[in-house]
Amino acid sequence: MALAVTDPFIKLPPELRIQVLVSTRCKSSISRIIQASPVMLLQYLSHKKSILRQVLAAEFDAEMIQDAMAILSFPSHRGSGDSPRHKHLSELIRAHLRAWSNSQLPDPLKGKDDHMVGQLNKLHGRILLFVEDYITKATASFPPQEYLCLPQIQPPSTEGYLMFKGLKVTPRFSSANLTSSERKRFVKAFLVYDLLCKTSNVTHIPSKLRLRKVSNAEYEAVGCVHSYVCSLYGSMLAQCNDAYLPTALAPPSLQTQLFFPIPDALYFDANVYAPNIRLLSRDLGDDIGAGFSTLGLDRLTNFLRYDMAKPDERKALDKKLKDVWKFGAPSISSTWDMHFMLLLASKEKYKNGCESSLYNQLSLKPKEKLRYKIGQQRAWVFFDDSRFYPQESTERPTFPSERFLAEQPVKKTFINDWFDNLRNEKD
């Protein structure tokens, strides 16, 4: 009772408490409020369904609802091995995608389907966790080091950490610090990317599908998500094998141990940590991260549930990833942007007025190669300004110029030599 007396919200009438919660338009902000205020917690629990619907309605525009529903109600591949069932599944998927392209999928926020609203909320929460992990890495002082870490997803936490083999390394960024437009850019890009993964089998794409027109900034945002997802597979493979946490990120109790540098001081390359997988199937291509990334967010989440603090679990995950690569047929025959063009249409100069200021300022191009990749790992398309990035210096710019990169000493590390060096150092 003493806590309730000091609760500033106790003096507000119930309708104003609800209005305060809804006005945040952000689930992370609501979580903070109800954790700090017992009165607001009781108010939230009493009107959870109504509050949740209003907050989700603010977080999702009409296109995002269609993307989310396309993901949540996507026809299942289970039990479709034989030819008749496979044909029937293809027909279901084509009909599903036509409904999506014509914006005909049901909006659960406008109906009474509380179960589907709950599913939408779970999908949104999972995406926000990835968004927060991505931003933590993208805005780090030295991103290639923090990209070695993985998000803490089990148990779920509103204030999680970036983890390295069970060690808490960096507090996770809170999406409550984003503007509404920034949060929508991130969530929309993750939704589109996950939908592309579900439609990676081009035989299921209907002919003459009506393509959704999107801006070039939205196209680039999906490319950034692809880069981030690839990096997570690199992080998993790194932690499963010989990689160690760089000294700069190590907890004080471990800084006296031997740590190894990362191969590149500017860019985290997921494929550096996958030599053994490449040797299993050289004919399948070289971009290991891109191959795994097409498996989608469901499979990615399942992989991230392994407890990396336990050597046995790391070994099990390593074996699982190798088995999936060898027998699970990850799609590497075509790139994410090829799938993009089957569902969406974009032109390089097309804008819709929702572009971020940083996108307009930087205008990075794929032909810039390393600079472009660094920009993707820095999440260059999403932010309204540079407020989350560390203070720049001449020696370490946030977005290095082509001239800066050209003047840096080139260090090419062949993958097998890299791991040989690690093993030799440990012997």
Automatic annotation (TrEMBL):
It comes from Fusarium oxysporum f. sp. conglutinans race 2 54008. It comes from the Eukaryota. This is Uncharacterized protein.
